[in-house]
Amino acid sequence: MRILAAVVILLAIGCFSLYSASSYRSLITEGDPTGLWRGQLKGYLLGGVFLVVGACVPPRRWFEVGAIPLWFGVTLLLLASIFTPLGVRVNDANRWLEMGFRFQPSEMAKFTVPLATIALTGIWRFDRKKGREMTIWRGICLATGLVGIPVLVTFYQP
């Protein structure tokens, strides 16, 4: 509970700092001093939704069910940012997707790539009694593939 209180306090300080630093600029450019602040607040609320969803799902469930589909989904989103009209160029980088809002799929990869790597190469996944022992080379190949594919797609983006 203390960590949640600390997060809320830090978010409030950040929100106040953003408002005090950007209200004049927002007033001049948009005619509304709360323009940037409201956008940041929307991000806070979306993050809060993901926090609640993530807290409600047990960690073992993420590994058993969600890791591989999430990895495939993020990899497809990374590819979509390059090869489809959904990908938009922002600050000379084609790493963004426009789907009513802009986001970077590579940010989601920070969560899904380690999750999928642990799910497929974790020691709990293999049972010696059933003859499915993880060898060091199998683990290295799986981890390299799971990490390497999104990294190569991200590097390919201009």
Can you tell me about this structure?
By secondary structure, this protein is mainly alpha-helical. It has 2 domains: about 1-55, no CATH class; about 60-158, no CATH class. It has 5 helices and 3 strands; from the N terminus they run αααβββαα. The chain has helices at about 1-30, 35-55, 60-85, 105-120, 135-155; strands at about 85-90, 95-100, 100-105. The protein has a 3-stranded antiparallel beta sheet. The longest helix is centred in the N-terminal third of the chain and has 29 residues, at about 1-30. The model has no long low-confidence stretch (mean pLDDT about 85).
Summarize the structure.
Helix content is 72%, strand content 8%. The chain has 158 residues and is mainly alpha-helical. A three-stranded antiparallel β-sheet has the order 1-2-3.
Name the poorly predicted regions: none
User: What is the multimeric organization of the chains shown?
Assistant: single chain
Order of H and E elements: HHHEEEHH
Shape: flat
- Arrangement of strands in the largest sheet: 1-2-3
Q: What percent of the residues sit in helical stretches (DSSP H or I)? A: over 70%
The total tally of domains equals: 2
- Mean pLDDT across the residues is 83
DSSP strand content: 5-15%
Structural class: mainly alpha
Individual helix count: 5
The major beta sheet can be summarized as: 3 strands, antiparallel
Key traits:
5 helices; three-stranded antiparallel β-sheet; single chain; flat; 3 strands; 158 residues; 2 domains; mainly alpha; 72% helix; 8% strand
